[in-house]
Amino acid sequence: MEKIIYYDYAASAIYGLLIISCIVRKMLKGRVNRNFFLMVIVGFIATFADIMSIALDLSGNGSFIGWQYAFHTTYLLFHTMTLPVYLIFIIELTGTRYRTLANPTYKILMFIPMEAEVFMLALNLVNHCVFYITENGEYVRGKFFIVNYLVAGFYLVACLIHLIRYSKTISFGKYVSLFSLFPVVLTAVLVQYFAPHIVIELFSISICYLYNALIVTKPEEMVDPVTGLMRVSVYSERLNRSRITKGNFTIILIEVSNYRSLQRSLGYDASKNLLGLIADHLSAICKDENLRDPDLYYLENGEFRVVVPASERPVVLQTAKRIKQTLSEGFMFRDVEISVLTNVCILNWPEDISDARSEMLFESRLIESPYHTDVMFAKEVMRKTNFEVLKSIDALIEDALTYRKFEVYYQPIYSVKEKKFTAAEALLRLNTEEFGFISPEIFIPAAEQSGAIHRVGHYVLEEVCRFIDEDDFKELEIECIDVNLSTIQCLEKNLAREISQILGAYHVKPAQINLEITETAAAFGQNEMDVNIENLSARGFSFSLDDYGTGYSNISRALNMPLSIIKLDKSITNIERNTKLYTIGENTVRMIKDMNMKIVAEGIEDEATLKLFEDMGCDYIQGFYFSKPLPREEFKKFILEHKGKEPAGKDYKE
Q1: pLDDT score at 558
Q2: Are strands 598-601 and 563-568 parallel, antiparallel or unpaired?
Q3: What is the pTM of this model?
């Protein structure tokens, strides 16, 4: 019966479209994309060889026996290659390359069947043990033709085992897409076995590849269009998979420290071109340094990553140094030399970090690091940034909230006019068994990022109200206590009602609480924030602007807020270390007094500075000169000891 070749025509058309799609959609960067392209090429060659083989077989004149051998051999070789290439694609997609292809034993076992296939096909040209062509051009299978099925069966089983074993490394949609090849191809093999004239195997494979192209390999999701490097989503998936695959590799982290400045200076389009140049330089350096199998990623905002196998670690430091040196030399960009400042850091996985969340956290700390002239090492950076604390901070915050382990300390505020302590600022402290005291500079930003800051804020306010409600609080003659509101708290819906409910539960009057808003929050224009502040002000709460002078000032906005007190930050009051600040401080105090607001001078640590700001006209003084923040009982004792007499401070020495 004459073979039906139309399925091969359809398959060749699908393969042709996939080849064009891979090129047009730039699916040639990254090992996953390159392996998919290889799969398509192998399928296309097998299909073309099959079409030519069938056409020559049908000619039946025996004039093209040499060509028949050539095309049949090519068809069998590339058709058998389909499954081992598919196995490599699965390995790359599941991120298990370093556990398989990088293992010499695994690699040998994996390629032995394919080598046997190549040997048999080469031998067939001499003894025709796999197939032969009769004198009249008829194609006949030989006694060892079954070797093709055995080799294909070996790789089919290997693909299934690998896909099932590492199913958790990919999404369910990708898993279904990859798995679909097996039932479809097995069905096609059975059809073609019992009906040899229906040539459907290659068509079924092409349909599965088309499905994979739509579901698995999406370049718009995998490749950054500006740099041509892998996206952050692919990078994140790789790190997450490493927990399952036990990956062992090294990451070169490259942070363009002045990217924001370059973006503002050059403009959006020009900064994109600059990123493309940086990506090209990174690719060229990796090639020049002969790095094997490097993967390059662009994570946005001037963040690049180079990931290499652990076997390449001996040359990683040299590569990192060259990257830093090359980028620091700058670029000629539009006839102007552009200086690119980078922080470059080497991180070994899993020795330094072994989970994706910790790695992302480390990256955030690296971004905040000042510019370094030398290549950094992750272990050293982690030591300097309290990284072990940061890794556990969310759990520590949750534990402190659940079991009320947070402590509220109080720092006295001295009234210049009344010559006594009339107020205090509530400050949160966290003391843990594992890490000891943890700075608010660590746990407050962490609470803001995790969303726990709302509960933390309510915790502080409740503790303050509980303190004010105590019978012996009246003896202290403290008029009010300052409580900080974070920027995120200021955006909380129904904030005024929730704060009022807490005060009501402890019989505390709004006048006894002064709410502090940082300069950052004051400069952050949001309608919800304005509504909250207006509602709280209407209920009798007073507000002060904290950290004035830290660089986020927005005077016009501050004037439109119901502020009664401005708290000068230590950056202004630290006159002893910078005498030029005296003029700034003097003019700042005069300006604030002209706006009929009261002033608290924070960070006062010695008597000389105290006198200066008293003479300038500041209303209140806060700082270590009088007292550091104290636990509640020590604070009560301190206030009672100084009650009825003018307190004598003590110069603070670090």
Answers
A1: 64
A2: parallel
A3: 0.67
